[in-house]
């Protein structure tokens, strides 16, 4: 993954200033939050003072900089990274994999997936197959990007009854993620998704229907419409880059007809 600046050619002061400006925080407010003087922070940003390792970590925490970028800041300041980035399949990540398995299994018969920061599909439970019916095989070739899979004209998009609303929701989430991380790869993904044939250049903002408490995913399948509510979960206290970027998204039935269809699909898999 990349960020909005080239880490190899940027000073720690310039990087901290860019993160502060991205977060729309003044020098004074950041200095108060980090318990340092505004003068000292100004000297750090202009390169007149080299921050300590602890100060880099403190400023990063105050600006809610993602763990991956905190490591980049430490390197720019001349310090070794402090946050590991273990591969999910590594031995040390066995407890994480076990927890993910329990969560995915526990959500059945509701579909649930695990994605990383790039929206790459890492794990999915058996119920997810219901969402993927009719998807072009090439979109399911690893690595699978779930946003591309959802909005591509040969993906799930033709079966989404409220595609305009759902597309706006997904693009808004992606835009917020770009704003939070400054990741250029995600920015490129946004441009790709927004440019799909037949898609509006700007995501529409639509008022909720009467009585709706959350935007449902309305999916046409097997001659009927299923309605899902989406929930998102993350690990609460991550100290590893990989773990901090894992997202578990679950799709729960928004009505009894959808719940019955999910139970029937699960029974069919069990009998088959």
What does this structure look like?
The chain is an alpha+beta fold. It is built from eleven helices and five strands; from the N terminus they run ααααααββαααββαβα. The protein has helices at residues 12-22, 27-34, 38-45, 53-62, 67-76, 94-107, 146-151, 163-181, 184-194, 241-244, 256-271, and strands at 112-115, 121-124, 217-221, 224-233, 247-253. Strands 2-1-5-4-3 form a five-stranded antiparallel β-sheet. A hairpin with a 5-residue loop joins β1 and β2 (121-124). The longest helix has 19 residues, at 163-181. It starts with 11 loop residues before the first helix and ends with a helix.
- Oligomer state equals single chain
N-to-C CA distance: 41 Å
In percent, how much strand structure appears in the residues? 5-15%
Series of secondary-structure elements, N-terminal to C-terminal: HHHHHHEEHHHEEHEH
A few lines on this structure:
The chain is an alpha+beta fold and 272 residues long.
Write the layout of secondary structure elements.
Elements: H1 12-22, H2 27-34, H3 38-45, H4 53-62, H5 67-76, H6 94-107, E1 112-115, E2 121-124, H7 146-151, H8 163-181, H9 184-194, E3 217-221, E4 224-233, H10 241-244, E5 247-253, H11 256-271
Antiparallel strand pairs: 1-2, 1-5, 3-4, 4-5
Helix pairs in contact: 2-3, 2-4, 8-9
